[in-house]
């Protein structure tokens, strides 16, 4: 009678290896989610700065805000029209903002989470955005600048992760993606 000298893995050894792989995968997946969210924040921050620059360039070229958008307390109320103007639908056909994947003709330029950016303009051309604008007030409160106006002509921000829209909570948790 011949005895086999081949050594095989036992069922217990295989189960131990599968369990170890499962534990390691469980540790890696949450880290990937954090990396993905940080990448979205970085992209949103970059796009906020690019949009801010595009709006300032438009204002410099045409001596008015894009499309003379109606704004209340500096908040842009006709965001979609402003986005069309910045992307080349203006009298000189000048493109001030190059759009990529995050553009929708009906919603405008979208952040990485698929929401429109929020834009605040210096509506009265006094070189500052008033602290009365809710987003400015909340961010200033977190950064110990209560009551101070924002010394910018343009401010752009994103709520970030769409699961939260309370500006106060977003500012305190520093999840609000801002250009100032």
Overview of this protein structure:
This protein has one domain. The chain is of the alpha+beta class and 180 residues long. The protein is elongated. The strands form three sheets. Strands 5-6-7 form a three-stranded antiparallel sheet, covered by helices on one side. A two-stranded antiparallel sheet has the order 1-2. The model has no long low-confidence stretch (mean pLDDT 87). Strand 1 and strand 2 (75-76) form a beta hairpin. It is built from four helices and seven strands. It has helices at residues 11-62, 79-86, 134-142, 167-172, and strands at residues 71-72, 75-76, 103-104, 108-109, 118-121, 154-158, 177-178.
Mean pLDDT: 87
Q: Tell me what portion of residues adopts beta-strand conformation.
A: 5-15%
How does the helix and strand content classify structurally? alpha+beta
Strand numbers in spatial order across the main sheet:
5-6-7
Question: Could you tell me the radius of gyration in angstroms?
Answer: 25 Å
Q: Helical element count?
A: 4
Shape: elongated
Distance between the termini: 83 Å
* Strand and helix order: HEEHEEEHEHE
- Uncertain segments are none
Query: What does the main sheet amount to?
Result: 3 strands, antiparallel
Tally of DSSP β-strands = 7
Total tally of structural domains: 1
Helix content: 40-55%
């Amino acid at each position: 009678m011949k005895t086999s000298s081949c050594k095989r893995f036992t069922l217990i050894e295989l189960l131990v290896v599968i369990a170890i792989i499962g534990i390691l995968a469980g540790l890696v997946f949450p880290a990937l989610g954090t990396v993905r969210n940080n990448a979205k924040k970085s992209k949103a921050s970059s796009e906020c700065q690019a949009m801010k620059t595009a709006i300032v360039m438009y204002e410099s070229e045409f001596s008015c805000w894009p499309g003379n958008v109606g704004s209340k307390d500096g908040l842009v109320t006709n965001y979609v029209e402003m986005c069309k103007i910045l992307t080349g639908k203006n009298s000189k056909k000048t493109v001030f903002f190059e759009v990529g994947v995050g553009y929708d003709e009906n919603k405008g330029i979208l952040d990485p989470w698929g929401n429109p950016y929020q834009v605040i303009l210096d509506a009265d051309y006094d070189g500052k955005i008033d602290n009365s604008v809710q987003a400015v007030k909340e961010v200033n409160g977190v950064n110990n600048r209560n009551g101070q106006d924002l010394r910018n002509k343009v401010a752009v921000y994103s709520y970030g992760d769409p699961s939260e829209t309370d500006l106060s909570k977003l500012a305190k948790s520093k999840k609000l993606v801002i250009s100032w």
